[in-house]
Amino acid sequence: MKPLSQTWPQDRAERYRARGYWQGETFPALLRARAADHPDRTALVWRDQRITYLELNDQARRFGAGLLDLGLTPGDRVLVQLGNTPDFFRAAFGLFAAGLIPVYALPAHRRTEVEHLLTRSEARAMIIPDKADGFDYRGLADELAGAVPTLRHVIVAGEAGPTHHAMIGIAADPARLPADPDPQAVAFSQISGGSTGLSKLIPRTHDDYIYSLRESARICGLGPESVYMAVLPVAHNFTMSSPGTFGAFYAGATVVLCPSPVPDAAFPLIAKEGVTITALVPPLALLWLDAAQKMQPDLSSLQVLQVGGAKFLPESARRVRPVLGCTLQQVFGMAEGLVNYTRLDDDEEVIVTTQGRPISPDDEILVLDDDGQPVPDGVPGHLLTRGPYTISAYHDEPAANARSFEDGYYRTGDIVARQPSGHLVVQGRAGDHINRAGEKISAEEVEDHLLAHPDVFDAVVVSIPDAHLGERICAFVKPRDGAAPRPLDIRKFMRARQIAAFKIPDEIRLIDSFGTTAVGKISRRHLRQQLRTEVLADEAKSTSETETT
Q1: How far apart are CA 362 and CA 365, in angstroms?
Q2: Do domains 27-180 and 209-431 have the same CATH topology?
Q3: Could you give the residue ranges of the DSSP H alpha helices within 304-343?
């Protein structure tokens, strides 16, 4: 098994400790301390369940000990594919307590993504629901059990099959749990957006991640009386630590798990539980704004609405305070590390027009032109960063590491303009990476699926700005001679390949040919830019003609 690690140069590590960013905290100790200090305080609310910190800690520790009884050993990786239920937190903190390493998958992932993550992480177990949103995860797990050599155990939160372990039945005496891990050890692996191909594993340590969520909780004003509502998937970095559920636990606050992001479900829950802060991606924020104007719900407890995952346009951002009656907080971050926030006391114009400034005084920011030279404030450029919670390498990805890291700096792939105040304004992506409603998707991966269709000769995928999604996926498809597959048939084919639904193109255009370079070769990067420009020109022309008539 390839070791999981994440290290910083000695001089920077010493500086981060000396300045109090890294305090030697670990996730098992975090929950244990909250249970000791506030045993009867509500940690989680889900439907009719109210789980205290003492109960959550006890359930997690007994589950972790039970995993060791199955034969798992500290250091083993376990894929977690659970939705917004208490089982996610029982599993995560149980794994932490047992010295096992969670690898977080999204509920929307299907065989293609899950098999890749299991294989790349060399996971020995996976924890899944029985069914959710009409999909039976047990059948997928059975398929993968024979395809992934390292996979030994399938644990089901719900009704287990004959070859599975029921999560509810896994419990043992916590006395057998190991000592707390080294704070510099890897706590878990998140997944990248997949700038080329499938996602990469992002190892995060206890020290670096807890610093990020601890400081996020402070910046976002969380305290014991705060009530954070998780609307987005809890496995997302945004929902986990910005400040997210883990930041709320750090502050001793209450986390409310929302069963659905739609206003009909979320608005009554805000009123019932006195929710003070929640987080959305721009499409959901727009939905909430429109619904609130019609429904006139009681949102009097809501103090902060965070919006992140994709750029929130100023025209929409200006509506938050007058419509919802709370402060908007823009969030721009990435699972690899760097997180930026508008501060709660920022000027309103700063809040609605920027995507915030970094968490830490030691977040080093470079904004460079195409030749690698610094650009002045206000001029767009490539964002590079390093700091006390930004990784220096992906797990077992030498080619990606060579592309993405230089002198400790992570090349984010984002184009930003830095303001004199240090706030960043996001301009878009530098590479072939689509940010659709907060899900970052590789154009190359979508192209690979399209090319597998027997009637597709070639395909190019581009991102197109979209008022609701941030960006939508537009696929240009060149059919094979004599073939003309319908867009509907292409989408059905892609769904059958068992990929996440958010990767299926929103728009498919059939074309006769792609342009070539002077030497007869297609530069896919330049071709994507050219095709994107053509679509935008078509849309601008259509809008102009409509306004004229």
Answers
A1: 9
A2: yes
A3: 314-317, 320-324
CA distance 157 to 170: 10
Nearest to 151 by CA among 159, 160, 161, 140: 140
CA distance 314 to 331: 14
Which CATH number is 27-180 given?
Answer: 3.40.50.980
pLDDT digits (tens, 9 = 90+) for 289-323: 999 999 999 999 999 999 998 788 888 899 999 99
Which CATH fold would you assign to the domain 209-431? Rossmann fold (3.40.50)
Burial class (CB in 10 A: 0-12, 13-18, 19+), 432: buried
pLDDT of residue 546: 62
Distance in angstroms (rounded) separating the CA atoms of residues 186 and 209: 10
User: Residue 28's pLDDT is what?
Assistant: 98
Quickly tell me which residue has 């930026």 as its tokens. Answer: 340
Tens-digit pLDDT profile for residues 473-512:
999 898 987 788 999 999 999 999 999 999 999 999 998 8
Q: Give CATH superfamily name and number for 433-548.
A: ANL, C-terminal domain (3.30.300.30)
CB 248 within 8 A of CB 254: yes
Give 254's Cβ-side CA count (13 Å radius): 19
| Cα–Cα distance, 437 to 309 (Å, whole number) | 7
Q: Supply the DSSP symbol for 520.
A: S
Can you tell me the distance from the alpha carbon of 101 to that of 7, in angstroms, rounded to the nearest whole number?
Answer: 17
User: Are 505 and 471 spatial neighbours (Cβ–Cβ below 8 Å)?
Assistant: no
The two tokens of residue 216 are 């996020």
**Pair 223, 253: CB distance under 8 Å:** yes
Which residue from 366, 312, 317, 311 is spatially nearest to 338, judged by alpha carbons? Answer: 366
Structural domain spans, the chain: 27-180, 209-431, 433-548
* Residues pairing with 132 in the sheet: 135
First to last CA, the chain: 66
What amino acid occupies position 320? Answer: V
> What are the structure tokens assigned to 77, written together?
């990786």
